[in-house]
Design goal:
Layout: E1 3-7, E2 13-17, H1 22-31, E3 39-42, H2 48-59, E4 63-66, E5 72-75, E6 83-84, H3 86-89, H4 99-106, E7 108-112, H5 125-133, E8 137-141, E9 144-148, E10 156-158, H6 164-175, E11 180-184, H7 190-202, E12 205-207, E13 213-217, E14 226-228, H8 233-245, E15 249-253, H9 261-269, E16 273-276, E17 280-284, E18 295-296, H10 308-316, E19 321-325, H11 334-340, E20 345-349, E21 352-356, E22 365-367, H12 371-383, E23 387-391, H13 394-397, H14 403-409, E24 413-417
Helix pairs in contact: 1-2, 1-7, 4-6, 5-6, 6-7, 8-10, 8-12, 10-12, 11-12
Bound molecules: uridine-diphosphate-N-acetylglucosamine and phosphoenolpyruvate.
Phosphoenolpyruvate (PEP) binds at residues 22-23, 93-94, 306, 371-372, 399.
Binding site for phosphoenolpyruvate: 22-23
Active site: 117 (proton donor)
Function: Cell wall formation. Adds enolpyruvyl to UDP-N-acetylglucosamine.
Length: 419
């Protein structure tokens, strides 16, 4: 299995180009199933999850073309199957996002239940109930969600809890339903807004995306268009934390600071001097060690769970004690045990981690368990003395485009050992 090897101790300096958002491109790729014609998508990140989604769409008969700038054109007019098989869904939970579009556009869908993953159990009953509120008949048989509806009709659904892909799935289905749908307690994440903007460009009639109440007036057809994906706020946040931890100065380019308020506040609390422009964010530590931060993860606009592991890594070498509480996923502290192997001082009490910063950690072999855990181990390797080897690095390729190259251009001593 491929590994990343890091020799720590270099402050990071320079510019890094941020890619399109994984969590926006995945629902947008699924939304291509709703269109009457080809959709072309720009600012597509080169990620394993994007390849998996293309394989999934391709297996259904969607015709896909990728140009040299990685613009993807998807033409769903001649699909041959409305089944999402277990083999693909098991490698990427976001495959569930094809459920709503397939049902709305073709009247039936069979999607393998995604099941849990390293960070938690991650059920999808809200997706199912939301679609049932639009008139779908849904059953779960032999590990598959089987959904059917001649034509979905507008309905009202109040989500039991805030769910990002649940909101996206029901939103996509409602776009082609007959009549008006009102969705309450919706996720307000920027990626939900980006999906809604893409659907609106396709001809959907949607109000309120980015608030907790979304109203969708269903339309009869959605058209092929071009759409550029939002920058990845989690990738940007990860590089900014890398700059802060190493006492360096890093500018993340092609970013949207307005989607990152909670993360930027924590970087300032850590002692970073921030400069924000329309499309860039600079952190400058002026050579200083970061201060510990306290944070609690919660749905947007609060602090994102997808940045928790990176700030845990920052706290391991920061000045002071930082308390981190994870409220979204029940098992998202896997990186903490690995960080202890580098000498981090961490006490875990339920969903809270109390991290006392140490002056210096030392490199060691570590094992990545999930996407953001991998990122946090790489960040820790950047500051640990000596060599750190992060194994099972395939997790990181799901969500970071060429992370070692990007960190390398900032001055990190990092390389990938192929399997
Ligand atoms: C592809 C994508 O966009 N992934 C993001 C999305 O995941 P995803 O959309 O899967 O996460 P959700 O927002 O659905 O999950 C939030 C919480 O709700 C629970 N829940 C969710 C649905 C449901 O039917 N029942 C239920 O109990 C989950 O187990 C979890 O505890 O949002 C997460 C929370 O911001 C991020 O960490 C992921 O990066
Ligand atoms: C948890 C994440 O992704 P996914 O929902 O695709 O597993 C993530 O991006 O951190």
């Amino acid at each position: 299995m491929a590994k990343i090897v890091i020799t720590g101790g270099e402050p990071l300096n320079g510019d890094v180009q941020i890619s399109g958002a994984k969590n926006a491109v995945l629902p947008i790729l699924a939304a291509t199933l709703l269109a009457d014609g080809p959709i072309s998508i720009g600012n597509v990140p080169h990620l394993h999850d994007v390849t998996t989604t293309m394989e999934l769409l391709g297996a259904m008969g969607v015709q896909l073309m990728v140009d040299e700038k990685l613009t993807i054109t998807a033409d769903p007019r001649f699909i041959t199957s409305t089944v999402a098989p277990y083999e693909l869904v098991k490698t990427m939970r976001a495959s569930i996002l094809v459920l709503g579009p397939l049902l709305a556009r073709f009247g039936h869908a069979e999607v393998s239940l995604p099941g849990g993953c390293a960070i938690g159990s991650r059920p999808v009953e809200q997706h199912i109930r939301g679609l049932q509120a639009l008139g779908a008949e849904v059953s779960v048989e032999n590990g598959f969600i089987k959904a059917r509806a001649e034509r979905l009709r507008g309905g009202r659904y109040v989500f039991d809890m805030i769910t990002v892909t649940g909101t996206e799935n029901v939103l996509m289905a409602a776009a082609l339903a007959k009549g008006t749908t009102v969705l309450e307690n919706c996720a307000m994440e920027p990626e939900v807004v980006d999906l809604a903007n893409c659907l609106i460009a396709m001809g959907a009639d949607i109000e309120g995306a980015g608030t907790n109440r979304i109203v969708v007036h269903g339309v009869d057809r959605l058209a092929g268009i071009h759409y550029d994906v939002l920058p990845d706020r989690i990738e940007a946040g990860t590089f900014l934390v890398a700059g802060a931890m190493t006492g360096g100065r890093v500018t993340a380019r092609r970013t949207r600071a307005d989607t990152m308020d909670a993360v930027l506040v924590k970087l300032e609390e850590a002692g970073a001097h921030l400069t924000v422009t329309a499309d860039s964010i600079t952190v400058d530590m002026r050579g200083k060690r970061p201060r510990s931060v306290n944070l609690t993860t919660a749905p947007y606009p609060a602090f994102p769970t997808d940045m928790q592991a990176q700030f845990a890594a920052l706290n391991t070498i920061a000045d002071g004690v930082g308390v981190i509480t994870e409220t979204i996923f029940e098992n998202r502290f896997m990186h903490l045990n690995e960080l202890q192997r580098l000498g981090a001082d961490i006490r875990i009490e339920g969903n809270t981690a109390i991290i006392r910063g140490v002056a210096q950690m030392t490199g060691a072999p570590m094992m990545a368990t999930d996407l953001r855990a991998s990122a946090s181990l790489v960040l820790a390797g950047l500051v640990a003395k000596g060599e750190t080897v992060v194994d099972r690095i395939y997790h990181i390729d799901r969500g970071y485009e060429n992370i070692e190259e990007k960190l390398g251009t900032l001055g990190a001593k990092i390389r990938r050992l192929p399997s």
